[in-house]
Amino acid sequence: MNTPAYVRNEEVDEESSHLLSWDEWLREHASQLLLFARQQSRSPEDAEDILQDALVRLARKEASGEFVGGQEAWLSYVFASIRRLAVDYGRKSDRRQKREDEACASERDEDVYTDPWFSSAAADEELKQFMEMQLRKLPSKFSEVIVLKIWGNKLFSKLRKRWKFRRIRRRAGTVTVLTCSAGL
User: Fold this and answer.
1) Which of 43, 121, 137, 115 is nearest to 86 (CA)?
2) Is 171 helix (H, G, I), strand (E, B) or coil?
3) Concatenated DSSP letters for 20-61?
4) pLDDT tens for residues 117-160?
5) Quick count: other Cβ atoms within 10 Å of Cβ 53?
6) Is 73 left (phi over 0), alpha (psi -120 to 50) or beta?
7) Measured distance CA(143)–CA(131) in Å, rounded
8) In percent, how much of the chain has pLDDT > 90?
9) Is the Cβ–Cβ distance between 46 and 89 less than 8 Å?
10) Under 8 Å between Cβ of 29 and 75
């Protein structure tokens, strides 16, 4: 059946008249999509990113002609995309957190002064002079304990054999005080 072109155009216009433009559709559904994304994600920032990614996916599918279902199916497609993307973001965040924790743990194990960025002959000499000057300001009984502990790699349990300790009880806890007698 041959219908004139102007009749066909009128039929198409009537069918598309109930369809919203992209901007109108987005204005109508953006708040509920964002609310759903916030419920599915771990942070408001992630929710915004997830919503944006879901809308970009929809726009790309629609532009390429791959999307099936028309505008009526957009909303359910975006909801499903948000759900999937939220799971992906959560997994990605967990993996990143695990990597960062492992990196921080390995950094804690390393000595800061062995890092070549922070050590140089001049810096080491300056640090040595500063430490010696500060140790001279302390009473000899304290400076000797510090030297043995830090540079002698001695444990306090071993140092107790050399020095007599007594404990003084305070409200906040126990404080160890060094007495004057030494068992050298």
Assistant:
1) 43
2) coil
3) PPHHHHHHHHHHHHHHHHHHHSSSHHHHHHHHHHHHHHHHHH
4) 555 666 777 877 887 888 888 887 777 777 776 666 666 666 56
5) 17
6) alpha
7) 10
8) 36
9) yes
10) yes
Locate 119 and state its tokens. Answer: 């050590």
Paired tokens of 96 = 């990143």
**With contact defined as beta carbons under 8 Å apart, do 113 and 119 qualify?**
yes
Q: Which one, of 66, 78, 86, 89, lies nearest residue 33 by Cα?
A: 78
Please list the alpha-helical segments (H only) found in the chain. 5-17, 22-40, 44-64, 74-109, 121-137, 140-150, 156-162
For residue 125 the two structure tokens come to: 């000499």
* Cβ-proximal residues to 58 (8 Å cutoff; 6+ apart), any chain: 67, 74, 77, 78, 81
